[in-house]
Amino acid sequence: MKYVSKIIEGRRVASVPPHKDQLNELLGIIDSKYQLSDEDVINQIFTLLYSGYETVSTTTMMVLKYLHDHPKALQELRDEHFRIREGKKPDEGIDWSEYKSMTFTRAVIFEATRLKTVVNGVLRRTIEDVELNGFVIPKGWKIYVYTREINYDPLLYPEPFTFNPWRWLHDKSLESHKYFLLFGGGTRVCPGKEKALVSISLFLHYFVTSYRWEEVGEQKIMNFPRVQAPNGLKIRISSY
């Protein structure tokens, strides 16, 4: 916090912004209706670092792990991306319609996230007394709703501990169900949901069409208190 505060102090007194980045965007808000205090800016920066960076990078790591362990899924994903690349110049980018056509890629991301959920739950405050299974949660209490276990309910996801991205294609309503809480839900659903999916999908597009990879050494993945690879997920990359 002190480190970020010093950076903010330096940015505010600088005659010319040293960087064109998100911090300067937050500090440069002119409209008094939306101006942020230094404390607000710090909170936003930490939110972006965790919610917008660590979640995406960890999910990407787990997608690569599951694809490595499931060659059939990897091949189907590769086929989807090579179809998109057909007729394209090497330096030609991806447009929105092509991204939206990555249906199997989206299914892979959802399935990897279901099994290795980076955000385990959501924080809420009760606005009235809530009775649940004979227990009363008083009004005004802050509660942590642990949503991860829903992902392992066999009534919702048959063979819940099996990596099966095809389940999202066979039942396309899964993403809209009320128990689909990978990105939260309701009016407080993650505003960066689609951005995260775009980032991971584009990474996969260029990665799987250009490279192959194999794991190196022993891999250790922790699920609690959050998904992480304490020693990293080491891979050896070669041209495809």
Automatic annotation (TrEMBL):
Molecular functions (GO terms): heme binding; iron ion binding; monooxygenase activity; oxidoreductase activity, acting on paired donors, with incorporation or reduction of molecular oxygen
Keywords: Heme, Iron, Membrane, Metal-binding, Monooxygenase, Oxidoreductase, Transmembrane, Transmembrane helix
Endpoints of the signal sequence: none
GO BP: brassinosteroid biosynthetic process; brassinosteroid homeostasis; sterol metabolic process
Topological type in the membrane: Single-pass membrane protein
Entry's localization field: Membrane
This protein's name: Uncharacterized protein
Residues binding heme: C190
Cofactor: heme
Keyword Transmembrane helix: yes
